[in-house]
Amino acid sequence: MKRIAVFASGSGSNFQAIIDVVQSGELKADISLLICDKPGAFAVQRANAARIPSFVFSAKDYSTKEAYETEILAELKRHGVELVILAGYMRLIGPTLLREYQGRIVNIHPSLLPAFPGKDAIGQALAAKAEWSGVTIHYVDEGMDTGPIIVQERVRLDENETRESLQNKIHAIEHKLYPAIIQVLLTQGGIVNGKKTSTY
Ligand code: GRF
């Protein structure tokens, strides 16, 4: 079974969706580790409930990103992690992790990138009165939501769309799309813009 790690900073509903499909047997993977940078995050409780080991840290306890990423890297290697899944991890991945895992780190973002990158993509779409937004799954590079796109799914904004209603629509898509794409990446290798590549 291929080993994956999930990185999360918050509630972890995407993490839970992945746990659920692994537990039901739909996704053939071993969630070996949760990496979380917020000690109080609900994602940590989800890991405990599912008996998934977690590495929880506070960036302020380290002098540099390199210092905490060195520890994360050691954990990933100790658990034999092959694919890294970012699911609401609110930090840029630095060179320490990218050097070892480039092409094997994916992220999910709640907009149609390159539109509305960075924080609060849902708020950005509402403020722009966009007609369409959506979900993007992409490889991670050193930029903020800039890596090669794997897949996108669109969502139409209603005229009376609220933050809550848009968030619910986006989460509903994410919770189905992310596990499905992880399955494809683990079994068939990589995809960029619908084309297969040799790595994850
Ligand atoms: C998701 O909407 C994801 O697209 C973004 O952060 C959010 C995380 O939500 N990167 P959750 O913690 O999985 O509920």
Automatic annotation (TrEMBL):
List, alphabetically, the CDD domains matched: FMT_core_GART
**Site feature (Raises pKa of active site His) residues:** D145
Give the metabolic or biological pathway.
Answer: Purine metabolism; IMP biosynthesis via de novo pathway; N(2)-formyl-N(1)-(5-phospho-D-ribosyl)glycinamide from N(1)-(5-phospho-D-ribosyl)glycinamide (10-formyl THF route): step 1/1
One Gene Ontology molecular-function label: phosphoribosylglycinamide formyltransferase activity
The record's listing under Gene3D superfamilies reads: Formyl transferase, N-terminal domain
User: Which residues are recorded as binding N(1)-(5-phospho-beta-D-ribosyl)glycinamide?
Assistant: G12, S13, N14
Give a short account of what the protein does.
Answer: Catalyzes the transfer of a formyl group from 10-formyltetrahydrofolate to 5-phospho-ribosyl-glycinamide (GAR), producing 5-phospho-ribosyl-N-formylglycinamide (FGAR) and tetrahydrofolate.
Kindly provide the name given to this protein in its UniProt entry.
Phosphoribosylglycinamide formyltransferase
Q: Which organism is it from?
A: Bacillus xiapuensis
Q: What is the lineage of its organism?
A: Bacteria, Bacillati, Bacillota, Bacilli, Bacillales
Give the gene symbol.
purN
